[in-house]
């Protein structure tokens, strides 16, 4: 539902906007999908609909800067896998068996799982083979139907298909679904061609990097550009991280996957030492939960451990819960080039926000609101979620009528793939 004017009342507001700060009790007025005011005692008559957030925390929606959303159809199937096993099983064995309908299911299920957990924006690193235009359209149809704000990072397809969707349904740069290019490394020639396509289409780029000097290679090839999201960054030295920073790029860290699959130590301490603020991401739902609470807690623990153990030098700053909450909100918006639209509760920005309950026994009493979000909460505390002024979850339940049938379809795909 999309009320013309929505009022969120009486919540403890973690705006993530330095000018607004944290407000012990305030209202948020939304009109035509945008935040109009954030202050106490807004006249209720100004709104068509009201959300009572008394006793709750209100904050910007979480931003996930790297997720392979099609894999939700395989959710949990690879929790015990190493990275090499994941490549062999998920990418090379199971992925070719998925139909266009299966890919639609995966993207839609992932999107709804994100919204249910308070993640309002996801960059979908779409690295499944797009063997036909039908496959591409199925993935995009799911994103559109879900109501999630998303960046469709096109990969594993053809330049012709990428041009088709950029010139058609993803021609706008300010819609709910926008476009990027998943421009992974190949030969020097193919790498230059991929990045030339991104420039032609005027879309951002994203790619996976681990170890070595990949950022320097892009600079040598003459393709390094602002707005690139570098995924993982494990094993990069200080010079490479500083080059990301100086080039106007961003870092997306997926700490849960990086620890369990063996990518290497998530580079939070090293990034902080290099003056680079990372963003957070889920990565693959075959082996990691799809909420941002898991990622924040893992980031906080790993980042502090690495700094305390001297893995990034003696001057590496110690992460705080405020740092980590910024990674999950404003940092994600900055990484995706959307900080002018989302990431904080700032008048003029899109109304992407969530309301978190604080009355569960595992959360109460709240001494420090930021610490409570990072260290104590989970998806069960997500009461209400709003994307662009549209209520997509309310009173702890998703507003999506087709959910039961979607879950039945997910079970059918699982049974077909496993031979049950």
Rg over CA atoms, rounded to whole Å, is 21 Å
> Counting H and I runs of at least 4 residues, what is the number of helices?
14
Mean pLDDT: 96
Helix content: 25-40%
Structure summary, number of beta strands: 17
Low-confidence stretches: none
Terminal CA distance reads: 39 Å
Beta-strand level of the residues, as a percent range? 15-25%
Helix/strand class? alpha/beta
What is the 3D form? globular
Largest sheet: 9 strands, mixed
Explain the overall architecture.
36% of the residues lie in helices and 23% in strands. The protein is α/β, with parallel strands linked by helices. The strands form 2 sheets. Strands 1, 2, 3, 4, 5, 14, 15, 16 and 17 form a 9-stranded mixed β-sheet that branches. Strands 6-7-8-9-10-11-12-13 form an 8-stranded parallel β-sheet, with helices on both faces.
How is the topology of this model organized?
Blueprint: E1 5-14, E2 22-31, E3 34-39, E4 49-52, E5 56-60, E6 62-67, H1 83-94, H2 100-116, E7 119-126, H3 133-146, E8 149-154, H4 159-167, E9 177-182, H5 188-201, E10 205-210, H6 214-221, E11 229-234, H7 238-246, E12 250-253, H8 255-261, H9 268-273, E13 279-280, H10 292-308, H11 321-328, H12 330-335, E14 353-357, H13 369-375, E15 382-387, E16 390-394, E17 397-398, H14 403-418
Parallel strand pairs: 1-4, 1-5, 6-7, 7-8, 8-9, 9-10, 10-11, 11-12, 12-13
Antiparallel strand pairs: 1-2, 2-3, 5-14, 14-15, 15-16, 16-17
Helix pairs in contact: 2-3, 2-14, 10-11, 11-13
């Amino acid at each position: 539902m999309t009320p013309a004017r929505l009022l969120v009342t009486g919540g403890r507001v973690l705006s993530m906007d330095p000018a607004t700060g944290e407000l012990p009790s305030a209202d948020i007025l939304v009109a035509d999908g945008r935040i109009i005011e954030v202050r106490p005692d807004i006249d209720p008559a100004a709104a068509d609909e009201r959300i009572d957030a008394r006793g709750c925390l209100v904050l910007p929606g979480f931003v996930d800067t790297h997720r392979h959303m099609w894999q939700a159809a395989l959710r949990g199937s690879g929790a015990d896998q190493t990275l090499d096993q994941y490549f062999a099983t998920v990418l090379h064995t199971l992925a070719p068996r998925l139909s266009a309908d299966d890919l639609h299911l995966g993207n839609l299920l992932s999107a709804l799982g994100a919204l249910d957990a308070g993640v309002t924006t996801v960059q979908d690193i779409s690295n499944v083979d797009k063997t036909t235009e039908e496959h591409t359209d199925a993935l995009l149809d799911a994103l559109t139907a879900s109501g999630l704000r998303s960046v469709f990072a096109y990969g594993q397809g053809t330049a012709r298909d990428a041009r088709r969707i950029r010139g058609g349904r993803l021609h706008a740069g300010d819609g709910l679904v926008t476009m990027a290019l998943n421009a992974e490394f190949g030969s020097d020639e193919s790498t230059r061609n991929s990045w030339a396509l991104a420039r032609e289409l005027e879309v951002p780029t994203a790619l996976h990097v681990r170890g070595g000097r990949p950022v320097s290679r892009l600079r040598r090839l003459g393709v390094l550009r602002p707005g690139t999201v570098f995924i993982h960054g494990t094993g990069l030295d200080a010079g490479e991280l500083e080059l990301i920073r100086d080039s106007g790029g961003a870092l997306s860290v997926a700490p849960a996957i990086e620890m369990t699959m063996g990518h290497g130590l998530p580079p939070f301490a090293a990034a902080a030492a290099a003056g680079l603020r990372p963003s957070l991401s889920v990565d693959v739902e075959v082996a990691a939960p799809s909420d941002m609470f898991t990622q924040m807690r893992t980031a906080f623990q790993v980042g502090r451990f690495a700094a305390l153990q001297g893995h990034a030098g003696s001057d590496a700053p110690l992460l705080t819960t405020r740092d980590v909450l910024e990674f999950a909100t404003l940092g994600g918006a900055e990484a995706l080039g959307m900080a002018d639209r989302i990431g904080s509760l700032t008048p003029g920005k899109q109304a992407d926000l969530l309301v978190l309950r604080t009355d569960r026994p595992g959360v109460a009493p709240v001494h420090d609101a930021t610490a409570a979000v990072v260290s104590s909460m989970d998806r069960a505390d997500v009461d209400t979620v709003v994307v662009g002024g549209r209520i997509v979850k309310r009173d702890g339940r998703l507003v999506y009528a087709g959910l039961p049938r979607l879950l039945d379809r997910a079970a059918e795909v699982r049974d077909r793939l496993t031979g049950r």
